[in-house]
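Supplementary Text 2. Reproducibility record for the structural model of the 463-residue chain.

All settings were left at their defaults, and a single model was retained for analysis rather than an ensemble. We include the record here because the model underlies the residue-level annotations in Supplementary Table 4.
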Amino acid sequence: MDVALLPSTTRTLDHLLAREQSEARLPSVVAGLVRGGGLVWSGGRGTTGLDGEPGAGPDPLNTQYRVGSISKTFVAAAVLRAVEDGLVGLEDPVRAHLPELVDGVGRVTVGQLLGQAGGVQAETDGPWWERTEGGDWDSLRPILGESAVRHRPGTRFHYSNVGFGVLGELVGRVRDSTWREVVAAQFLVPLGMTRTTPRPQAPAARGLAVHPWADVVLPEPEHDAGAMAPAGQLWSTVGDLARWAGVVAGTSGVLRRSTVEAMWEPQSVDDARGSAWSVGYGLGLQVWNAGGRRHAGHSGSMPGFVAMLRVDVETGDGVVVMTNSTSGFGDLPARLLTTLAEREPLDPEPWAPREVPADVLELVGPWYWGPSPLVVRAGRDGGFDLRGLTGRGRASRFVPAGEPGLWRGLDGYYAGELLRPVRGADGGVSHLDLASFRLTRTPYDPDADVPGGVDAGGWTGGA
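Retained model, structure tokens:
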């Protein structure tokens, strides 16, 4: 889809980027916006010290920055491809694939590690791994015993870099390869992400720390993180991460759409007790509740670098921002994405008639769960949507369950539950049997076999 932004929108975006670079005192910053699967705007500001030239400015499409924990999304995608291929199960304990991990992390499931719900310790026991040369798997393995499990698995959000070191080893083991080679073969090469690499390749920004009280900078170290590399090793560009945004949005084709939708579902919630959730963790993705809209992606930081990749899963619009400063940027990614949505609103898809299967068409219209009105509307995937007629009530999408006349819920309260239309003596649908509930065409229809029966006196206006 060809998208050209208005000059006034481009000017506003450029100004937001310039202001953030100046006010946040960023050595350099690059950003891009994605719409319709393509990069519709990009910009760069500041100097990166490219190839020893302090005055060189960044090229958003070609200058590499370290993306930190955005690397985790690549490892997660590789794990989920192994799930798609039947090599791994989300409920598998890690020791099923790494048998040397007998206890501790070995008893945590693959899905719990992906969802940051495994309770595994956040960092390594040794020196600050982000700033020191990493060791191999044999050097990481001794800390993965029972003491590494800090919380009961599956009970709470606890961000773990160590857990993704384990997942990187698991991916390599089940493919008889390394996580780097798997990620390159399954994603980087097919998507044309030629500027995404485990170590920097010129032109690449130099990682810097900016003094909090003076306008001076300090170079940060760069190294191979070894067994911890899956937690934050990769370098990339705005151009390449714009392609990766298509994977997060579920439009790239390198993962099944159903797999990506599962990645969006919160597995654990990172919020103070008693507050409405705003940030959570799906299967390898951070998820945000942005005023009722679901965003997905990941932030990243390593010494000298901060990055963000974020996608509105409803529209597919995405934002990428990277800087070579340890202290990073503020809410610039959200402001860029909001500016795109407000100044260049997406037109709705044009309505047009379409074929609706006969077994769906006979179900559309109002139904009642007791006295509560619901409505069935034909969907776009050969199934239908069940919603509260007044905006209240349990809602789910339903698709064929493989057996004629049987439907399975995809989401909401009825996710995974079965719905069966029950026919009367005349062959017409008498009622819907949904997870033991009876949905009828009129409230408490006495002819629809309502469990518990319907009072013979019927509806009355008096005692």
